[in-house]
Design brief:
Helix 4 crosses helix 7. The longest helix has 20 residues, at 151-170. The radius of gyration is 23 Å and the shape is globular. The chain is built from 19 helices and 11 strands. The protein is α+β, with helices and mostly antiparallel strands and 461 residues long. The protein folds into 2 domains: 4-243, Metalloenzyme, LuxS/M16 peptidase-like (Cytochrome Bc1 Complex, Chain A, domain 1); 266-457, Cytochrome Bc1 Complex, Chain A, domain 1. The protein has helices spanning 4-7, 19-27, 29-32, 81-91, 99-108, 133-145, 151-170, 172-184, 198-203, 206-216, 232-243, 293-304, 312-317, 349-362, 377-380, 384-399, 403-416, 425-431, 434-445, and strands at 39-43, 49-54, 60-67, 112-117, 122-129, 222-228, 266-272, 277-285, 322-332, 335-344, 451-457. The chain has a 6-stranded mixed β-sheet with strand order 1-2-6-3-5-4, sandwiched between helices. It has a 5-stranded mixed β-sheet with strand order 7-11-8-10-9, sandwiched between helices.
Length: 461
């Protein structure tokens, strides 16, 4: 019996946008200096980075392992191997146990486990009652550092992955997002789809996968965050005992160029078996370590989120009614992306596209705060900036109640942060002014460097 679906929640979206998650990562900068008794950072001799956060809200423990391995590390000939490894590590065997044995054992301990592939990192997470902390550490060590595959197992998992790719390509939202990425990051490490190329996956051999696995799944390329109800000294001791004997394998440092915006607007139109229209507009944004990320966080909230986003205004004025409109900011290590998604009547896609682009170009001249007005006009002005700050503050504090989100944030932070003086996220958000928003809008949202993807129903034959 295949137990994978009994022990897992649905897989996370391939394109992970995380304004709230990003904010939460950055808001944890102060505890990195170990100013609080319930946190500790240390590094094993073999290079494994570890962050412990003792949070006794619930009798649970959350472990997240992040590997500095994503589609950025693949070539055209290996695009898909990271996705294969994600699947095989979760569902296939090790040198000691079969995949079914591992799944059954995890299920017996009441655990939730999952993983996903990203552009920068590969993430593996486990959540279970805190009384099983020792089991959690040993289980993750086994599946992450002792993978053992047969060609038969690999071929079976490849079929699952190929079906997954088909589902993604049949999903208009995921498909248009992937097309935006591939064109916005043309000739960059982020151009390759995170789910991989069919031909690479179909032809993959055990030897190829194992070689790739041994090159990246090492302790020096990994960070572990543990959040939950545990005793600090005992957890540190157990982690050193379980993982300390793993051999240190140095990985040559990899250099990647920062992404550059396209030189012109690129438009792509696709027909799919859909009944409504889909429109995606993408543009380059600040990377994970860039100081202008805070202004883009706020612009994203003001323009495209909430009950009445500003992007709705030019559409309503032209009587262009949409089913949904969202705006997201994704900050990767070597480049960011702002993505606007709309669903609407397919006959209104071109009109909506024109209005959105015109509005984005005007965004560098808009008033976002009551302070932008004078005299009695302040009484009637909507303070978009203050409202957005309050919403981000609320979402950030809300996310701090979810142990698995905290652990994931900390694991990512350990591998992606390059700014020792970045400060607290919410404090940086509070410093942003309307002038900062207009500057960021002019730099990122107002250029003729958009990737526009529209998906319309197939023409009737």
């Amino acid at each position: 019996m295949n137990l994978r679906y009994l022990t897992m929640k649905p897989k996370k979206p391939y394109i992970l946008f995380a304004t709230v998650l990003l904010g939460f990562i950055l808001s944890f900068t102060p505890i990195y200096s170990q100013e609080k008794e319930n946190t500790k950072y240390f590094e094993l001799e073999n290079g494994l980075k570890v962050f412990l956060y003792n949070k006794k809200t619930l009798p649970l423990i959350n472990l997240v392992f992040a590997f500095n391995l994503g589609t950025k590390d693949e070539s055209e000939e290996t695009n898909g191997l990271v996705h294969i490894l994600e699947h095989c590590i979760l569902f296939r065997g090790t040198e000691f146990h079969s995949g079914d044995e591992i799944s059954e054992n995890i299920r017996k301990h009441g655990a939730y486990f999952n993983a996903y592939t990203g552009h920068d990192l590969s993430i593996f997470e486990l959540n279970l009652p805190s009384e099983y902390a020792d089991f959690a550490l040993n289980n993750q060590k086994e599946i992450l550092f002792n993978l053992k595959l047969t060609q038969k197992e690999l071929d079976e998992e490849k079929e699952v992955i190929l079906e997954e790719i088909s589902q993604i390509e049949d999903d208009p939202l995921k498909y248009e997002t992937s097309l935006v990425y591939q064109n916005l990051f043309k000739n960059h490490a982020y151009q390759k789809p995170v789910y991989g190329k069919r031909e690479v996956i179909k032809s993959a051999t055990v030897e190829q996968v194992e070689k790739f696995y041994k090159s990246y799944f090492t302790t020096s390329n990994c960070a572990l965050a543990v959040v939950g109800d545990f005793q600090m000294e005992k957890m540190e001791e157990n982690i050193k005992k379980v993982f300390g004997n793993l051999k240190k394998e140095e990985i040559p440092p990899r250099k990647f160029e920062k992404a550059s915006p396209p030189k012109k607007i690129i438009e792509i139109k696709k027909e799919m078996d859909v009944s409504t229209g889909y429109l995606a507009i993408g543009m380059l944004a600040p990377d994970f370590n860039h100081e202008e990320q805070y202004a883009i966080d706020l612009l994203t909230e003001i323009l495209g989120r909430g009950i009445n986003p500003m992007l709705n205004h030019p559409l309503i004025e032209r009587r262009i009614f949409v089913n949904s409109i969202t705006m997201h900011y994704g900050a990767h290590k070597y480049g960011g992306i702002v993505l606007i998604n709309l669903t609407l009547n397919p006959r209104r896609i071109n009109a909506a596209k024109r209005q959105i682009i015109q509005f984005l170009k005007k965004s560098r001249n808009l008033n976002y705060s009551k302070k932008d007005y004078h005299g009695e006009f302040q009484l009637y002005a909507i303070d978009y900036l203050e409202s957005a700050k309050n919403k981000i503050k609320f979402n950030t504090h809300k996310s701090q109640e979810i142990g698995l989100v905290i652990a994931e944030s900390l694991a990512k932070f350990m591998l992606m942060n390059e700014n020792s003086k970045r400060g607290n996220f919410l404090e940086n958000i509070n410093k942003i002014t309307s002038s900062d928003l207009r500057k960021a809008a002019g730099k990122y949202l107002s250029k003729n460097a958009y990737i526009i993807v529209s998906i319309v129903p197939k023409k009737k034959s």
